[in-house]
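Problem 3 from the worked examples.
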Amino acid sequence: MSLLIVVAAALIDNAGRVLVAQRPVDKQHGGLWEFPGGKVEPGETATAALARELAEELGIAIGAVEPVAFAESAGERPMVLLLYRCTEWRGEAVAIEAAAITWAAIDELDALPMPPLDRQLLAALALAESGR
């Protein structure tokens, strides 16, 4: 089975809040909160995939992004999840594919139920942001 590469964004607003999306209940990890993003398609770069996924899922066009962290899983389908920091975008984020979206301070995100890889990325993001 081939490696699945998934990209996600830590969208950070001017108040330092991060956007997370709630997965639809009928999907794997349904009801859990995650960084928005999705699968990298064949022939697509990670950043192009991130721009496409955020346009499809949130209706926004992102500006520059910077890599923050990655997490990997060797479960039934090996996966690498790449997290990018983004502070510039056009449009207002809306829940197109998610059950809901919310903006929260990084320390408030700890209280939300998240998939294991997103939880790892949250810890890395918190460390990176504390050094800014």
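Problem 4, a separate protein:
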Amino acid sequence: MSIESTAVTRIVAIGGGHGLGRVLSSLSDYGSQVTGVVTTTDNGGSTGRIRACQGGIAWGDMRNCINQLITEPSIGSMIFEYRFRGNGELDGHNLGNLMLTALDNLCIRPLDAINLIRDMLHVKPYIIPMSEHPSDLTAITYGGKIIRGETSVDELAEIPKRLYLEPAIPATKEAVNAIMEADIILLGPGSFLTSIMPVLLLRDIEQALKVSTAKIAFITNLDKEKGPAGEMSLETMLHWCERAMAGRLIDTIITDVPQPQLGPQYQQLVLDLASNNHEWRHDRNKLKHAVERLIASR
């Protein structure tokens, strides 16, 4: 399928980190027809350190997505991707995170800060934070313990009973509008509990997904996750997503192996998706082909 034949197709990809960046970069030829709605609850690494001293939303996942969408290397992109090394306080910090934080401190909307960087680096797909308000991913265990922060959730020894955001925050209105106008919505791949689920926990996005007329697809990981999400079956993940979407069912599973345990309500696109160099990483061209197959089946 050519790009021209799908000129009006609007695609929204939901998630964070390397997985969402991989999807967005695979669809970069679609330009502004593509929107990434990005989780903003990370509290680890450079992002976590900035949040601890400056507050604000987590920038790391958005920076990661922008990095993977840079198609024309430049001095600007080298600066944005630069990571400090050494023994001082800057060690481990990514300059892109600091640039976005600085723009935020200049009283620019987080989304405006991202758009300034997108324009500077000639990134065509839209990158929208799930919210412009800071919040932390929080889990309740079956024993009743409350675990706060993405890094702590990832370190749980068991699957949590449920997740929520603390405090409850509104979704970015542009993210809600993109979902309402989408023809295709992609969930994953990536860290299920800490990249995909945080976006779905927003009330505004829950309601937008509930009434969306788009085809919704879940892209499976190619390797088992570490942490509690690695103990979740695909059926459980789909149930968690559908519960967070107020009962809206997922239409299609994009996977590299057949999933015979799933019911007939799910269409399955079973395709070779792995990179030739890294079997656990999705190949960009194969992902693009999978999405174009999804578009053709609408």
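Solution to problem 4. Confidence is low (pLDDT under 50) at residues 1-6. The longest helix spans residues 284-296.
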